Predict the 3D structure of the following.
Amino acid sequence: MSTPGEERVRWRPEPIVERVEAGPERVRVYEVSPRDGLQAEAAIVPARTKVELCRRLAAAGLRDVEVTSFVPPSWIPQMSDAEDVLTALGHQDGVRTVALVPNRRGLERARAAGARDVAVVVSATESFARANLNAARDAALDTATGVVGAAREHGLGVRGYVSMAFGDPWEGPVDRGVVAGMAAALAQAGCSTVALGDTIGVANPGQIHRTVRAVTAAGVPAEAVALHLHDTYGQALANVVAGLDAGVREFDSSVGGLGRCPYARGATGNLATEDLVWLLHGMGIETGADLDALVGVSRWISARIGRAESCSRVTTALIAAAGQ
Ligand code: MG
């Protein structure tokens, strides 16, 4: 109880930790803001700002960062500085920097720029394959597995994405047998992790459970499955909990919730890293991330791209609580 005249010290909000029984000790947070976040911004962000963002994310404790994409500049002009970003970043101890490569040409560019880890993308639906990958679905899978094989031959680590793994804006619900088959093909080709993308944010926990189960039944171990969730309908954190329950140990997120899908109408931001980290730390799960530092990065990049505020609920709440 405070005595008269004494200023009451206000509690500085932080996750109240209640460890969940049988939950994992640690989860990998895979940060996608420099690539997936900034490619969706209308404005072209200078390469030096991207490099600074990557450095700040690493300083905030993130150890897996997707830093750029070697797509043809005519597809996504925001990523036309991929060489500059990767070269300027160099290799940072303890931080895995991943570059997206859509095809063989992208892989060659990434290798020439010194990439050690790359990511490939396929689509579980025909419509999105044609819109996003400029190819039929099966042809895109052939291209991707070919790129994975070539990357592995050169000693690179490879991550695979299955986009539109839950719902598609043109086709509706997605056949989880197709998702499982594609995930298995990517894993067999040499991907160490396959991320299932809820590209438009329509997944729900029941769907997460069943789809992860279908993927593991197809031969991909749960520890090799990641979830790339969007928060369009406010379901992303519920889906993280469902994913944890299903054995998933890696989740994609973007600081400040940066990024929407430029090809999928109506898709809003990625799950915000601050919100994911608040949830995981509250569940007693280690991430290595420093939440306060992440809030700082979120505010910094939001200001750089002209956003009045971060799209992260946690960052917004912490700023309000601090009276700033
Ligand atoms: Mg995304």
About this structure: The beta strands are 28-31, 64-69, 96-100, 117-123, 157-163, 167-168, 172-173, 193-198, 225-229, 250-253.
